[in-house]
Amino acid sequence: MDLHYSEQELQFRARARQWLQDNIPRQPRPVGGEAMAQFDRDWQRRLFEHGWAGINWPEEYGGLGLSAIQQVIWYEECARAGAPHFINTTYVALMHAGPTIIACGTPQQKQFHLPRILSGESLWCQGFSEPNAGSDLASLKTTGAVDGDDLVINGTKTWTTDGQHADFQELLVRTTPGSERHRGLTWVICDMRAPGITVQPIRTMLGDEHVNTTFYDDVRIPLANVVGEIGGGWRTAMSTLGFERGTGFIGEQLALYERVNQAIKLAGRTRLEGGGLAIDDSDFAARLALIKADTLAIRAMTLAQISELREGDNPGPKGSMMKLMVTGTAKALSHLVADMLGWEFLEYNDNRNEHPLTYDYLWSWVYTIAGGTSEIQREIIADQMLELPRAR
Amino acid sequence: MYLALDSHEQEIANAAAAFLRAEFPLARLHARRDDDARLAEFSTLGWFGLAVAEERGGSGLGVIEQMLFFLELGRVAGPFGVLPQALALQVAADEPELLRALLAGEENVALLVERDGSGARGLGGDNCRYALELTAGESTLFRLAREQCDDVPCLDRSVVMFKTPASALQTVARVTGDGLWLRAQVCVSAMLLGAAASALDMITGYAKERETFGRPIGAYQAVRHPCADMAVRVESARCQLYYAAAALAAGHDDAALQVAAARLVAQHAARANTDANIQLHGGIGVTDEFSAHLLLKRANLLWRLFGSGRDRARTLLQVDDLDGAGS
Known about the structure:
The structure holds two protein chains of two kinds. By secondary structure, chain A is of the alpha+beta class. In chain A, about 45% of the residues lie in helices and about 15% in strands. Chain A has helices spanning about 5-25, 35-50, 70-80, 90-105, 105-120, 235-245, 250-265, 280-310, 315-340, 355-370, 375-385, and strands at about 125, 145, 150-160, 170-175, 185-190, 195-200, 210-220. Chain A has a four-stranded antiparallel β-sheet with strand order 2-3-7-6, with no helix packed on it. Chain B is an alpha+beta fold. Chain B has two domains: about 5-175, Butyryl-Coa Dehydrogenase, subunit A, domain 1; about 180-315, Butyryl-CoA Dehydrogenase, subunit A, domain 3 (Up-down Bundle), CATH 1.20.140. In chain B, the strands form two sheets. A seven-stranded mixed β-sheet of chain B has the order 5-6-2-1-3-4-7, with helices on one face. A two-stranded antiparallel sheet of chain B has the order 8-9. In chain B, helix 4 packs parallel to helix 7 (about 180-210), helix 5 runs antiparallel to helix 7 (about 180-210) and helix 7 packs antiparallel against helix 10 (about 290-300). The longest helix of chain B is centred in the middle third of the chain and has 31 residues, at about 180-210. The mean pLDDT of chain B is about 95. The chains are: A alpha+beta, B alpha+beta.
């Protein structure tokens, strides 16, 4: 074991810190609409123009080719500086679609899409889940019928995060009629401006409309947009899910530490009903201390995972452990803050910028459900790590 | 930055595991309670003196190796007396004859867990002629008149608990500072993690074999999901413990913070996992002949050691930059 950073890593940290300090937007991110998407595009363009785009992409495709440790450093510095959160409307493009095209795409697909993703020109959304295929993704039914040089898509996708802002979608459809489960699926690039696509917002309990249902009515997509093999879509899709549960989550893990420090400061100035400060209350202090300890453990898990994983390994159940820890700790934190605030917590007008702490509380359920529910993560751990008898 | 065991560290961990599982398996505690009489066995392989300088008769290793050893000791609820014996060596560093006798296991050390003007409560058998007390600010080694002490029963039957009058304690050596305190926290955290990991192994083994309603219980989500949560607790506690030990070894400014976090996470894992292990076993889990209760009882002893939750909360609730991540 060795906690020592190399001279090169220290220099990288200093350079990142200085650049972020000079460049992060002074205005808050708008809460929704086109202005929010434009804010994300502008920030991505700024990163791109200054050589900071593609933190986790190989150099060959315009990325920075950083080591995992340098990626950790970058995200730590982003959290420290209060930089725009990396889970925004550019997330699917940079963390899913881009890496999938890098792994499985044709030279033409790479040449067209990758530079546009890096520069913030094109935003992407995901088209995997369906109204009847969520945790059980392989039961999806949206069809793609080959007709000449096109696939003709019919069906419905849902939980399409930021679909109203996206230029393209990573779309998973059933192209072999009558096929079952993981067989007969195809991963295809869908132009969101194509005729026959209807995006219908879903209002969530947070009071916002960040997710959508997407309807496809004879939508024609050129076969040249298929990524990987026709019928090999499951393999193509898995190359991104493994990625998501690996390094794609690092920024989230490290941002928690700053959030906990904010909560500690809040506890140091918030008076409870009895008049005492929350931080002096033994119950609050004990809960907050455990959350802080878990947050440090999450950082250690991140570093251990990087050290123990070999290049190209699928993080598998370790990624599931990480997601349970991060989302569980974030939930405990936002609920503790809610308890601490008393009646002030109830002042909420659906605007996340004006009432971020109430918003965080409501978001905590999105967190433990999206990207694989906590229950599915436990199944992965039980199957792949503990090797318990199969439940299914 | 490398937060994983290197080959040398892995060797130490393997050797400790091999020795402890062969000589002190958890099941030993059903048959006989002679841990105190067997402490000298740890001296032959040099386990007491892992972190003592070579010129003083030790192995010259550090807190990382000690952590790995105590993790394995925790898995088998190994002889508790090893802990005060190993820690006392750091207090007796300038007493050559005592140091030699402690390294050889010829003299044994009890641990004082609470003390006031009238006397103290300690853990350790009749074999202990010394007693160690640790606080955040100083560590004291006493000569103990064990014959003046009264034994009291202990929930963890592998440990002898006693009460001693103040007159039975004579100060022999003292060191100031929090170095040994933090090292002790790492060792206890490692033992807590060992108990948590052992509980996980026990229930996952059982869940693959035991059948109800015609299926192994490990196929039911009511069992699978708590097991997965146990695994997450073990993994998070392991990673944080590695980090804390490495930060302490490197002398980082945030070592006290990292150690407090390691202790809290390991303690939480030991509490929750030794509990869930009994519950998920069903009826067999509460029997004396089965080993699940041994881990619960040892964990109960360990989580009372070395400071209160209040102290740990105070350390953790400072808003600080992390070492290396800071300026």
